[in-house]
Design brief:
Structural class of chain A: alpha/beta
Strand content of chain A: 15-25%
Low-confidence stretches of chain B: none
Distance between the termini of chain B: 52 Å
Strand order of the largest sheet of chain A: 2-1-3-4-6-5
Helix content of chain B: 40-55%
Oligomer: heterodimer
Mean pLDDT of chain A: 95
Order of helices and strands of chain B: HEHEHEHHEEEHEHEHH
Number of domains of chain A: 1
Radius of gyration of chain B: 16 Å
Structural class of chain B: alpha/beta
Helix content of chain A: 40-55%
Number of strands of chain A: 6
Strand content of chain B: 15-25%
Order of helices and strands of chain A: HEHEHEHEHEHEH
Shape of chain A: globular
Chain lengths: 175, 193
C-alpha cells in the first residue's frame, strides 16, 4: 500500500488487519505510538469510525453497545489502560460473550524509560491469561496485518476477546 | 414518584425501543415493570450502562435507545457525559434514577444527597437537552421530547423495594436482545468465512 504521509509500516499493517477482520468501529484512548495508527485510519481507511473515550473502561462499554447493535468493535488502548478496564472485561464482555478486537500499545516492556509503567507492562500478559483473553504479540511490521486480522477473525467468529500487543521495539525508536 | 413508577413510564414511552439497564435495582425494576426482549439487563460493569447505550445508539441510528442508569452508577463514569456531549447522538435518552443513595448496597447516601447536580454536569459537558423531574407527568413529558441531540433526564425518585430479578443467564439476555432489535446476523452468527 502506498502512502502519501510518512506512516510507519507497522501502523499501516495494524489498520489493514483491523479492516480485514471486518471491524469498522475503533473505540480508543490515545497514546503516542497509537497516534500513527489513528492517522493511518483517518487518511487511508475512511470507512472506519473512530470514537474517542475518556477512559479505557468506558471504551469497552461503548464497544459492547456497538456489538449489540450489530457492529464488530475494536478497542485501541495503551497497556496501562488494561488495569482500568478489568471490571468491564470480566463482568460485561466475557460473561455476555461480547467480542472485541483489542490493539494494545505496550508500556513497561523492553526499551521503557519510566519505572511507573513497568509493573503493569510486565503483568499484562499474565492478566490476560488469568481472565482467559487470548493475546498475540505483533513481532514485525511485515506480520502486523495478518496477526491483527487473525486475532480479529477469531474474536468475532468465536465471540471472545482477542488482544494484539504492540511492543515498544516495534512502535518506537528507542534512543 | 418511586423508582418502579418511573420505570413503568420509561417502558411505556419506549414502545419497541431498546432499554439498557444498570445493574442492581434499576435492572430489577425494569424486569418487574415490563420484561421484554428489548431489555438489556447488565449484571456487572457498574457505571457502564450509559456507555453501552451510547455504543448501541451509534450502531443503530435508526432506533431510539433508552438507558436506565443510577446516580451512584453514573458517578462511576462521569466521563461518559463528556463523550455523549462530544458525539451528540440524537437517538439516545439517558435517564438517571436518582434516589440519592446506593440502594442496591444498603442505602448509603451518594453525593447527589449532598447537592451534587448531575443535570448541571451533563449541561457542562455539552448535553443541551436536560431535565430534572420529580413527578410522573414531568417524566413522561421529558422522555417524549425529541431534539437535535441526546436527552438527559434526572428522575428524582424514592427508593422502592424491588420485587423480582431478571434472567441470570447473560448470554441468553444478549441473544434475546440482539434478535429483538434485529442486529445484523453477521454479528450474531460470527464474522463469516
Amino acid at each position: 500500500m502506498t502512502t502519501t504521509t510518512a506512516a510507519p509500516a507497522w501502523a499501516v499493517g495494524v489498520c489493514t488487519g483491523v479492516h480485514a477482520a471486518g471491524s469498522r468501529d475503533v473505540v480508543y484512548v490515545p497514546d503516542n505510538p497509537l497516534s500513527h495508527v489513528l492517522r493511518v485510519f483517518e487518511h487511508q481507511f475512511r470507512d472506519v469510525r473512530l470514537v474517542l473515550a475518556t477512559r479505557e473502561e468506558e471504551a469497552f462499554g461503548i464497544a459492547a453497545g456497538l456489538y449489540l447493535g450489530g457492529r464488530l468493535p475494536t478497542v485501541m488502548l495503551q497497556s496501562s489502560g488494561i488495569g482500568n478496564s478489568l471490571n468491564a472485561l470480566t463482568s460485561l464482555l466475557v460473561p455476555y460473550q461480547i467480542p472485541a478486537l483489542m490493539i494494545v500499545s505496550m508500556r513497561g516492556d523492553s526499551g521503557e524509560w519510566n519505572a511507573a509503567q513497568v509493573p503493569m507492562g510486565r503483568a499484562v500478559r499474565a492478566i490476560f491469561d488469568s481472565i482467559g483473553v487470548p493475546h498475540a504479540t505483533v513481532g514485525s511490521a511485515d506480520s502486523a496485518a495478518e496477526t491483527v486480522r487473525l486475532a480479529g477473525k477469531t474474536a468475532f467468529g468465536t465471540r471472545t476477546l482477542g488482544a494484539c500487543l504492540l511492543p515498544r521495539c516495534l512502535t518506537l525508536k528507542v534512543p | 414518584m418511586t423508582r418502579i413508577e418511573a420505570t413503568r413510564i420509561i417502558v411505556d414511552l419506549a414502545g419497541d425501543a431498546p432499554i439498557v439497564a444498570s445493574l442492581g435495582h434499576p435492572a430489577y425494576d425494569l424486569f418487574a415493570a415490563g420484561d421484554r426482549p428489548q431489555n438489556f439487563y447488565t449484571w456487572g460493569s457498574m457505571g457502564l450502562a450509559s456507555s453501552v447505550g451510547l455504543g448501541l445508539a451509534l450502531a443503530r441510528p435508526d432506533v431510539r435507545v433508552f438507558v436506565l442508569d443510577g446516580d451512584g452508577s453514573l458517578l462511576m463514569n462521569l466521563g461518559s457525559l463528556a463523550t455523549i456531549g462530544l458525539l451528540q447522538p440524537k437517538n439516545l435518552v439517558l435517564v438517571v434514577m436518582d434516589n440519592e443513595e446506593y440502594a442496591t448496597t444498603g442505602g448509603q447516601p451518594t453525593p447527589t444527597a449532598h447537592g451534587a447536580d448531575l443535570d448541571a454536569a451533563a449541561r457542562a459537558m455539552g448535553i443541551a437537552a436536560t431535565a430534572t423531574v420529580r413527578s410522573e407527568d414531568d417524566l413522561r413529558r421529558a422522555g417524549a421530547e425529541r431534539g437535535d441531540g441526546p436527552m438527559f433526564i434526572v428522575a428524582k425518585v424514592k427508593e422502592s423495594a424491588p420485587t423480582a430479578k431478571p434472567p441470570l443467564d447473560c448470554v441468553f439476555i444478549k441473544h434475546r436482545f440482539m434478535s429483538a432489535i434485529r442486529s445484523p446476523q453477521s454479528a450474531i452468527e460470527g464474522a463469516g468465512l
